[in-house]
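Is this the right way to post structure tokens for a design question? Let me know if I should format differently. Anyway, here goes:
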């Protein structure tokens, strides 16, 4: 049996504009501990921001 270590992370995602297509999504994302949110324009940038924040948090912990 293989054991996988999982880290549970929380993010605050605020969507300010959402078109019928996901590419027209605009908003911010941050961790509860961070004071400065990252902005995103579209679903790809949202995923990039989540990965960036997740890596920073994992490296701190």
């Amino acid at each position: 049996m293989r054991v996988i270590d999982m880290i549970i992370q929380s993010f605050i995602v605020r969507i300010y504009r959402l078109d019928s297509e996901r590419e027209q999504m605009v908003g911010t994302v941050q961790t509860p501990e961070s004071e400065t949110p990252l902005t995103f324009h579209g679903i790809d940038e949202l995923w990039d921001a989540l990965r960036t924040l997740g890596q920073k948090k994992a490296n701190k912990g």
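Format looks fine. Someone answered above. Worth noting: The helical segments are 43-60. The chain is about 30% helix and 25% strand.
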